[in-house]
């Protein structure tokens, strides 16, 4: 039985080396984990089958050696010896079939590994080596959070009644959401937002936006100090009216056109935006 276990161990070791001889190849982790799992399962099942077959063969060989030993007193006749030989031959055939099946499985796994490498790495054929192809992957648009609404370009959040606040704090609250105070670029965007406002925002309710008047009296967007393009974004009638109203706002009764508002002293609705 000791010899049986040694033989089985040698078989397992040689197979392990064969299977993992490509460990030095650079392959994506997810591929390696998947293939390793399959190979381990295959090795485990094959090991137990081979171990049993090797032990059976060893027992048969031991029996034949005892029969063939001239010092061994055996009442076995030639028929019994031939039966032993046939049994060993049958076991060898079974063992051969198992090995053949194992080799087929190895080939299938190697083909699968090659296909995965082709998909992950783009292959290493001569054609690939001589041809450089540049592909651009377009990232999937951001999925807007619950309670937000979306356009193809942005996600929007309208504050609740209890969140109404001054302009500077509105900026901070949008920032805390990973967003910014809405910067309405065009009248078209303004019309879209107005069409999606929740019912809590009344027709005359004022909403803060991400515009401000800088020290040069230019109206710019808060995030980048870029000047508002008045060719595509229109001021409401009578605005801007100067004075100390230095922050941007809007409301439905003015068709969501631009208004200038006081930055402090008034708690108003506000809108946050995130680029998709």
TrEMBL record:
Q: Which Gene3D superfamilies match?
A: Mannose-Binding Protein A, subunit A
Where in this chain does the record put each C-type lectin domain?
A: 151-273
Membrane-spanning residues: none
* Record Pfam families: Lectin_C
Signal peptide bounds: 1-21
InterPro entries to which the protein is assigned, alphabetical: C-type_lectin-like (IPR001304), C-type_lectin-like/link_sf (IPR016186), C-type_lectin/snaclec_domain (IPR050111), CTDL_fold (IPR016187)
- Please give one Gene Ontology molecular function term for this protein: carbohydrate binding
Domain of life according to the entry: Eukaryota
Q: Does the keyword Signal apply?
A: yes
- Keywords for this entry? Lectin, Receptor, Signal
Q: What name is this protein filed under?
A: Killer cell lectin-like receptor subfamily B member 1B allele C
Organism field: Mizuhopecten yessoensis (Japanese scallop)
């Amino acid at each position: 039985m000791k010899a049986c276990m040694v033989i089985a161990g040698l078989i397992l070791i040689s197979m392990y080396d064969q299977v993992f001889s490509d460990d030095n190849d650079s392959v994506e982790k997810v591929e390696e984990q998947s293939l390793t799992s399959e190979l381990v399962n295959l090795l485990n099942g094959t090991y137990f089958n081979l171990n049993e077959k090797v032990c059976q063969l060893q027992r048969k060989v031991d029996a034949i050696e005892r029969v063939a030993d001239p010092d061994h007193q055996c009442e076995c006749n030639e028929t019994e010896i031939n039966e032993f030989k046939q049994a060993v031959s049958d076991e060898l055939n079974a063992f051969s079939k198992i090995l053949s099946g194992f080799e087929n499985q190895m080939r299938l796994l190697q083909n699968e590994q090659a296909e995965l490498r082709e998909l992950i790495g783009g292959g290493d054929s001569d054609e690939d080596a001589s041809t450089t192809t540049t592909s651009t992957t377009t990232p999937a648009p951001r999925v807007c959070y619950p309670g937000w609404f979306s356009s193809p370009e942005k996600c929007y959040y309208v504050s609740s009644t209890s969140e109404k606040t001054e302009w500077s704090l509105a900026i901070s609250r949008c920032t805390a959401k990973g967003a910014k105070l809405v910067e309405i670029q065009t009248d078209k965007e303004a019309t879209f937002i107005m069409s999606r406002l929740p019912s809590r925002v009344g027709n005359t309710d004022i909403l803060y936006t991400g515009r401000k008047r800088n020290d040069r009296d230019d109206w710019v967007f808060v995030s980048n100090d870029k000047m508002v393009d008045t060719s595509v974004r229109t001021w409401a009638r009578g605005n801007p009216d100067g004075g100390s109203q230095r922050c941007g706002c809007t409301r439905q009764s003015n068709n969501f056109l631009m208004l200038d508002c006081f930055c402090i002293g008034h708690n108003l609705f506000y809108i946050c935006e995130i680029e998709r």
